Amino acid sequence: MRKFTKTFSVGAFALALTLAGCSASGNTASSGTAGTGSASGTRIVTAASISEDTHYDADDLTWDAAKEVAVTLKGGASTAAANAAGVRVDGDTVTITAAGTYRLSGSLSDGRVVIAAGEEDVVRVVLDGVSLTSSTGSPFIVQSANEAIVFLEEGSSNSIKDAATYTDQGTDAPNAALYSMADLTLAGTGSLDVNGQYNDGIVSKDGLVLAAGNVTVNAADDGIRGKDHAVLLDGTYSVTAGGDGFTSDNDTDDGRGWLLVNGGKLTVNAGDDGVKAQNQLAIANGSVTVAESSEGLESQHIAISGGAVAVTASDDGVNASGGASTATQGGGMGGGPGGGETVGDYSVDISGGSLTINSAGDGLDSNGNASISGGTVVVNGPESNGNGALDVNGELAVSGGTVAAAGSAGMVVTPGTSSTQSGVQVTFTSTQPAGTTVQLAGADGKLVATFVTTKASASLVFSSPAIEAGKQYTVFTGGTAKVGSGLGEGSLDGASELGTVTAGEYTQGHGPGGR
Questions:
Q1: Which string of DSSP letters, residue by residue, matches 142-177?
Q2: Nearest to 239 by CA among 213, 253, 257, 219
Q3: What does pLDDT average to over the chain?
Q4: Closest CA to 487 of 443, 439, 423
Q5: 48, 207, 275, 313: most buried, per Cβ within 10 A?
Q6: How far, CA to CA in Å, does 215 sit from each of 1, 154, 422?
Q7: How far, in Å, CA of 459 to CA of 381, rounded?
Q8: Which residues pair with 292 in a beta bridge?
Q9: DSSP SS3 for 7
Q10: Any idea what DSSP says for residue 195?
């Protein structure tokens, strides 16, 4: 019996996203406690609102090797083992019609593998040195099944490449190199290279779980796309896409269209959005690097509770927008949306991990509210005054963590009146060039912050547990820093004093927490 087991569930808890410790890179893995929950009606994305279970369970990666069906792919001469009642070969089309585990090897230079099983069938396809190419459409299609599992055999190299133009371009026709109408799971420790020349790379029209694998995706449009949910648990995924990088796009069913990263390593270069969900986007563990994008992370609700996230965007870095929102008109000072900004049902919540943003547009942007209660947030925001390092239509509540947001001075947003952790606002008399070391020291001369700008900056908003409300802090430029950019350790040797700021006193034109 070959066993490769893991359980996964997302449970709803009061203040934190609680996830099973999942690892799908070997033949054994830890298991978590199963559970289900319901989405928070108030959309508090400290993660009680991310509560849908996936289709993935411990049985997915457990099978009896003796019952595997061997299928050899070869142009004009594909064959299946004698026990292959669930396999039909018709020229260079190999169709799997029944539940079971099928081990594929070999290549088709112009063919396809089709899964057309029953609605209750779980079909497991082990790719063990497979090369699939089609000149007419998608070379790997899941037409029907309860769930399809693509398992990448350890040590194997596999590739899937579709046609640049599809013969069938109907509304419901496949449009991705690896295309599934059923729930889809990718696992195993082998490698897979996916080339979506026509449109998308990997698509599930139901749920999608990336449990493991070393996968590279190049796509003309979207790289990896799930519908009801898209989840990364483990593995290394590198995506280059003309459209969105990694996305979940169900915009019709309430509570669907959510995305979760709870492990693994994701790297995205995208022509549009890097990581995007229609409803809710959560990062709880792992590494997410959006090296190129229009907008880095985008969803109606965004929650970061762990992991390491780095985003580079030509527009907004992190953007809570889209989805279905009921908006209210705000106004006034004290953390609300100054100037009557519209406050919608949008949120950004950061409670742990690290988030680094480099954006030409707004850095951290919420069309509703935002909260920071833990972790480290570094924003290298816009140089133009038409955008801000922080842009929150409603309340920006800071109760913990460390925040350093540098950028232009035209649209500065600072912690709102509900914040329990204080901060300082520094507006420079002249724009500081990239690579400037900015340091803050208390009245006792001890450093409380060292920050190195990534690009030209006219302002800096800083908050950390070391900042005490009402206390004065001296601002310096220069000195030494042990980091090339962002936050780190430093010293005031050779630094120049610029002046003082008082914690909790903010002087922007639109009021704390608003634009």
A1: EEE-SEEEEEE-TT-EEEEE--SS-S---TTS--EE
A2: 219
A3: 87
A4: 439
A5: 275
A6: 27, 13, 44
A7: 10
A8: 269
A9: coil
A10: E
CA distance 377 to 486: 10
Structure tokens of 153? 């055999």
Q: In this model, does residue 397 exceed pLDDT 80?
A: yes
Q: Is residue 435 helix, strand or coil?
A: coil
**Residue recorded with tokens 């896409």:** 241
- With helix as H, strand as E and coil as C, how does 363-384 read? CEEECCEEEEEEEEEEEECCCC
Separation between Cα atoms, residue 442 and residue 420, nearest integer Å: 19
Q: How far apart are CA 427 and CA 164, in angstroms?
A: 52
**pLDDT tens for residues 36-89?**
222 233 333 333 333 346 888 867 899 999 999 999 999 999 999 887 889 999
Of 170 and 125, more confident: 125
Cα gap 98→330, rounded to integer Å:
57
Residue 347 CA to residue 48 CA, distance in Å, equals: 13
CA distance 49 to 17: 9
Residue 211 in tokens: 């449990």
CB contact at 8 A, 220 and 244? no
> 358: closest CA among 376, 342, 382?
382
Q: What is the structure's pLDDT at 9?
A: 34
Rounded Cα distance, 425 and 421, in Å: 14
Torsion of CA 396, 412, 435, 398, to 10 degrees: -20
Task: Provide the H-helix boundaries in 69-144.
Answer: none
- Report how far residue 432's alpha carbon sits from residue 434's, in angstroms, rounded to the nearest whole number: 7
